[in-house]
């Protein structure tokens, strides 16, 4: 969802720049970590990474009129949208710089999650095996009782 955030911020920054005083605009940009005044830098980065159509430009964003999903659909080609989303999760919005430590952290979290899943699966298997043994034991006892009663 970071790509939506980047593109939507570009639109907001451009709008805000036209309609507000310089100070408030500067505040807004620094809060989002943008160094460029209007988001062109972010669009250039996205285009360079191959996530935007060749003919995508800043005007397409501005004409989206606040519908950021529409903006993304206009700008990001269909077949690469998912790649863009996946890749953007490894990019920080601030300056669009690649953060390897973030990727490491995400991989670590994923490994922990997988390990927990494995443990949960093992516990589930053990529980089912215990239940099965219990049922078989009850069945054996019942057949023994029945055979004793018949004698």
UniProtKB/TrEMBL annotation:
<protein>
    <recommendedName>
        <fullName>UBA domain-containing protein</fullName>
    </recommendedName>
</protein>
<feature type="domain" description="UBA">
    <location>
        <begin position="36"/>
        <end position="78"/>
    </location>
</feature>
<dbReference type="InterPro" id="IPR015940">
    <property type="entry name" value="UBA"/>
</dbReference>
<dbReference type="InterPro" id="IPR009060">
    <property type="entry name" value="UBA-like_sf"/>
</dbReference>
């Amino acid at each position: 969802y970071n790509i939506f955030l980047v593109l939507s911020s570009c639109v907001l920054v451009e709008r805000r720049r036209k309609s507000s005083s310089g100070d408030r605009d500067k505040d807004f940009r620094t809060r989002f970590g943008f160094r460029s005044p209007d988001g062109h830098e972010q669009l250039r980065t996205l285009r360079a990474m191959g996530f935007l159509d060749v003919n995508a430009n800043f005007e397409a964003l501005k004409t989206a009129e606040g519908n950021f999903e529409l903006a993304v659909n206009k700008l990001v080609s269909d077949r690469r949208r998912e790649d863009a989303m996946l890749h953007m999760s490894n990019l920080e919005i601030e300056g669009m710089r690649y953060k390897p430590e973030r990727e490491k952290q995400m991989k670590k979290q994923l490994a922990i999650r997988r390990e927990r899943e494995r443990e949960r699966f093992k516990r589930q298997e053990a529980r089912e095996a215990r239940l099965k043994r219990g049922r078989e034991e009850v069945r054996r006892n019942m057949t023994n009782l029945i055979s004793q009663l018949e004698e």
